[in-house]
Amino acid sequence: MADYLFDRGVGSRLFPEGVRIIKTRGRIRQVWLGDKILCTIRASDGFIVLNRRGAELLHAALRPPRLRVMVSEEAAPFVATGKTVFAKHVISADPEIRPAEEVLVVDPGDRLLASGRALLSGEEMMAFKTGVAVVVRRGTGGA
Q1: DSSP one-letter string for 39-76
Q2: pLDDT tens for residues 77-124?
Q3: Are 68 and 94 a contacting pair, CB within 8 Å?
Q4: How is residue 119 annotated by DSSP?
Q5: What 3-state DSSP class applies to 12?
Q6: Is residue 83 a contact partner of residue 136, using CB atoms and an 8 Å limit?
Q7: How many CB atoms are closer than 10 A to CB 38?
């Protein structure tokens, strides 16, 4: 599923040897690596919802600009604390991003700030000057 959602070969990087799977009612719900949760699996559609450690692994596994939304330096500290990404602060975005896809939010130096769910396509993020581009799920904790 990770290869399908994110890119070919990402599954082995996102889920290295030693991951622990938590199931309820026979379905995978969470994936842990050591004492850190990597992701949860959304029950309604089976999509992977990244936690902080999972976003870090995905960021390391993907080459820019894949699944990245780059925000301005002025917005970066706010996004890193979990605030919403507005279209006016988007400097660049992967044109292949589709609405409802998990994305990585980065600063101009490609430092991971947050992960979240895209509300707009990558092209729309660049074209629009108002509105919400990404609903941030988890910030990295500070810029």
Answers
A1: EEE-TTT--EEE-HHHHHHHHHHSPTTTTEEEE-TTTH
A2: 999 999 999 999 999 999 999 999 999 999 999 999 999 999 999 999
A3: yes
A4: S
A5: helix
A6: yes
A7: 25
Question: In Å, how far are 26, 33, 88, 98 from 102, measured between CA atoms?
Answer: 25, 20, 20, 9
Render pLDDT for 28-69 as a digit per residue (tens, 0 to 9).
Answer: 999 999 999 999 999 888 899 999 999 999 999 999 999 999
69 close to 55: Cβ distance less than 8 angstroms: no
Share of the chain above pLDDT 70, in %: 99
Q: Which two tokens stand for residue 8?
A: 């070919």
Domains observed in the chain: 2-61 (3.10.450.90), 68-139 (2.30.130.10)
128 token code pair: 């629009």
Q: Among candidates 46, 60, 52, 38, which has minimal Cα distance to 5?
A: 46
CA distances from 128 to 117, 123, 124 (A): 17, 9, 6
> Residue 130 and residue 20: Cα distance in Å, rounded?
41
